[in-house]
Design a protein that fits this description.
Blueprint lengths: L17 H10 L6 H11 L4 E4 L6 H10 L11 E4 L3 H14 L7 E4 L5 H8 L5 E4 L1 H9 L10 E5 L1 H6 L3 H9 L6 E6 L4 H7 L7 E3 L11 E8 L4 H12 L5 E4 L3 H13 L4 E4 L5 H12 L5 E4 L14 E4 L6 H8 L9 E8 L3 H11 L4 E2 L4 H4 L2
Parallel strand pairs: 1-6, 1-7, 2-4, 2-5, 3-4, 5-6, 8-13, 8-14, 9-11, 9-12, 10-11, 12-13
Helix pairs in contact: 2-3, 3-4, 6-8
């Protein structure tokens, strides 16, 4: 689709049903973002879609508005399935759909792993029109003949690169085998490497591609800085210096290992920082509790592995610190995209040791961006 100045368009221009339009405006959306303006018409038309857009630009709004506009309110069977890689993201999408559909009488189910199977079965016995799910639990429910896909209109794969390039591949193929060949398939993600696009040829029908060139992937509105360090152990002192110098409302600090996370957590607790953490090996209820504490302000620092880098929206977050640079270039945009969501200002600080210099340059080259040295007046960028 040709580039368009979406600033002149409203959701009214996208042929959205009246009761959904009321929910869209009540939720706080004012105008469609670029990805929403481009993808919603294709979803409405039933076309397969591959959509790439940077973090914080409204991908979730694009596919949720798109499918809610197509739901048959009289048909009390599963018409739409949204599959996403993490429990936290599934919960967030569920909440967004619930809010957007406040003026529509629809039934939504949340079917996620690491919860009691009986809870999933109870949800599904409500005859949901929309299911939000993680891959393993969804496939299990299909195999148990608890989820029926014969009336499925649209299957959405969110954070497609993560879903397709990690351990979810086999589950995805097995699920797709169980859905009608006439079902629409939509993939959404911030990054879509070429090898991922090749895989989509297996199960998509002449998809409409809404792709962002790599040199357009720089996160507008987010100032990116680095701090040069000769030794790894100096990172702790620099972090404390930053907190001693400026007032930070909320911050996510990313690390690459649980051992670093635990070490940093212990040091911050020793100094009475209101800190919590989240990683993939935690019990689901503990992850949810810690994330909730951070969202409501009970804690103001959240330490995380890359579990949290995808999709989670923290409304008041303005600062992300890469205590460790991400292991993959593609993950960088997901991490720093937690700040400056959907037009808000944000700051990302990268701690760069001598060994990390080459990796930092690769990230700059990959995104065609310039990461500047952290200035003395950092506080001015966090206002």
């Amino acid at each position: 689709m040709a580039e368009a100045d979406v600033s002149t368009y409203n959701f009214d221009d996208l042929e959205i049903r009246d009761e959904l339009l009321r929910g869209v405006y009540a939720y706080g959306f004012e105008k469609p973002s670029n990805i929403q303006y481009k993808s919603i018409p294709f979803i409405n038309a039933g076309r397969d879609v591959i959509a790439q857009s940077q973090s914080g630009t409204g991908k979730t709004g694009a596919f949720t508005v798109g499918i809610l506009n197509k739901v048959d309110l009289e048909l009390k069977q599963t018409q739409f399935i949204i599959m996403t890689p993490t429990h936290e993201l599934a919960k967030q999408i569920f909440e967004v759909i619930t809010e957007l559909s406040r003026y529509m009488k629809i039934t939504i189910a949340k079917v996620i792993g690491k919860t009691n199977i009986s809870d999933s079965i109870t949800e599904l016995r409500k005859d949901p029109q929309i299911i939000v799910a993680t891959p393993g639990r969804l496939l299990d429910m299909i195999n148990r003949n608890i989820v029926y896909t014969d009336k499925l209109k649209t299957f959405v794969i969110d954070e497609a690169d993560e879903m397709l390039s990690s351990g979810f591949m086999e589950s995805i193929y097995n699920i797709i085998k169980c859905i009608p060949k006439t079902s629409q398939i939509c993939l959404f993600s911030a990054t879509l490497p070429p090898e991922i696009l090749q895989l989509t040829e297996y199960f998509m029908k002449e998809p409409e591609s809404i792709l962002v060139n790599r040199d357009q992937l720089t996160l507008e509105g987010i100032k990116q800085f680095y701090v040069q360090l000769e030794q790894y152990r100096w990172k702790f002192d620099v972090l404390f210096d930053i907190y001693d110098t400026i007032n930070i409302t909320q911050c996510i600090i990313y690390v690459n290992s649980k051992s670093t996370l635990q070490n940093l957590y212990d040091r911050l607790k020793e100094r009475d920082f209101p800190v919590s953490y989240i990683h993939g090996s935690m019990e689901q209820r503990d992850r949810e509790s810690n994330l909730s504490d951070f969202k409501n302000g009970t804690t103001r620092i959240l330490l995380s592995t890359d579990l949290l880098s995808r999709g989670i929206d923290i409304q008041q977050l303005s600062l992300v610190i890469n205590f460790d640079l991400p292991r993959s270039k593609e993950t960088y945009i997901h991490r720093i995209g937690r700040s400056g969501r959907y037009g808000r200002k944000g700051v990302a600080i990268n701690f760069v040791t001598t060994e990390d210099v080459g990796q930092m340059k690769e990230i700059e080259s990959f995104y065609n961006t310039k990461v500047e040295e952290m200035p003395q007046n950092l506080a001015d960028f966090l206002c």
